[in-house]
Amino acid sequence: MTEHRFLQACRHEPTDVTPIWLMRQAGRYMAEYRAIRAQHSMLDVIRTPELACEITMQPINAFDLDAAIIFADILPILIGMGLNLDFVKGEGPVIDNPIRSAADVAALRTPPTEENLPYTLEAIRLVRRELDGKVPLIGFSGAPYTLASYAIEGGGSKNHTKVKSFMHAEPDAWAMLMDKLATLIGDYLVAQAEAGAQALQVFDSWAGILAPMDYREKVLPYVQTVIERAQSSGVPVIYFGTNMNGLLSMLPETGADVLGVDWRIEIDDAWDQIGEDFAVQGNLDPVTLFAPWEDIQRHADNILARTAGRAGHIFNLGHGILPETPVDHVRRLVDYVHERSAALKR
Amino acid sequence: MTEHRFLQACRHEPTDVTPIWLMRQAGRYMAEYRAIRAQHSMLDVIRTPELACEITMQPINAFDLDAAIIFADILPILIGMGLNLDFVKGEGPVIDNPIRSAADVAALRTPPTEENLPYTLEAIRLVRRELDGKVPLIGFSGAPYTLASYAIEGGGSKNHTKVKSFMHAEPDAWAMLMDKLATLIGDYLVAQAEAGAQALQVFDSWAGILAPMDYREKVLPYVQTVIERAQSSGVPVIYFGTNMNGLLSMLPETGADVLGVDWRIEIDDAWDQIGEDFAVQGNLDPVTLFAPWEDIQRHADNILARTAGRAGHIFNLGHGILPETPVDHVRRLVDYVHERSAALKR
Question: Is the pTM of this model over 0.95?
Answer without folding.
Answer: yes
